[in-house]
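Protocol step 4 of 6: structure prediction from sequence.
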Amino acid sequence: MSGIPFFYKSDLALLVPSAFLSFAVYALRRRQIDRHSFIYFAAMFIVLYAQMIKFDFFPVKVYLGIFLRIFFAYFVIRAVGSRFIKIFINVIVASTIISYFFYFPSYLPGIERTFISISPYFDTPFRNHNAAYMYWPGLILYNINSKGGSPPLLRNSGPFWEPGAFAGYLVVALAFNIIIYKTFFNKKGKHLLFGLLTTFSSTGYVALFAILIFYIMVKAEFVYKMILIPILIAVSIVAFTSIDFLGEKISENADISGNTHNTRFTSAMLDLNDTYENPLLGLGRSGETRFKGSLYAHENHRNNGTSGFLATYGIPFFILYFFFIYLGISKLCKIYNMKSIFALYFVILLLLIGFSEVYFFYPFFYGLPLLYPILRDWREFEDSDMYEAYKPSLEPQL
């Protein structure tokens, strides 16, 4: 459901039953709410309640949607337990492999047009029409939004709303893969890496270079760091200045002339102005408070997820959100004997990919701060391959 157009276009029509189904599994497994998650829920409730009082406005559907997404993520994570991260990697790898069967045939004459012609049969009957956004044709497991690269190259969206969005999920899966398997180049890592290359996403490529640097920082000896990192930085500079579509996209998104509101940097500037207006609470998710009730879609469209999240919920919740993610990833690094500094690198990667897409309003990303509890309790690992390696550090010491 997180970022796949068939599901999010259906809005509450599929979100509500999905949340209740996940709750049923959660209840059957008799999980109990933990203090960490309670703090996260309470913080969100306080922010939304304070916004309601400040703006004297109660957007019922917006608030319902936020809490359904958060609790859907929570119930799934708690029901699945310590297997969640490996399952996420496997789902993204499977989505990448499936995308090959649509992406590569699209280079053949008439094939992409055929996919588009049959796409209405795969559209959701619960579509929530929003004039502010363009919905691309899709086949549920593959979204047909291949334009924007350097002709004749097509871009791979996978099941997500656009190639850049697919790139972000691939980057997160790659980071998890590195923590767990200590390598870029296992079978799963190769699929994730190749899938990322087929997106032709400038932000995805920047994030890839960042991951490579972070990987070298935590895995390589000092001498190799001194040699490899400057080479990698030089290669990245050459790539982004000599490859046309990368340079053009970066120049386009760096435009702060004010002629458009949908570049990354312009969105960031507008969002930071909004944050300055109400730094503690943010301006909320509703258009009535976020954009002063403006219905001008072009002006209201913001595509910088990092600054948008800050402007929506305010500075304190923004810090809490990423700190809780850091705690969870830090614990994951400890379990798999990865240097704890990689948890900070993980957060930096999220801030980086969020600069180009509004990821943080989707269930998966609402759920990332909730990973810590499933990694904290040793009982979560009894039926997993992590348990034996991690058990000694969790047992009482005499």
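Step 5 (inspection) to follow. The radius of gyration is 21 Å.
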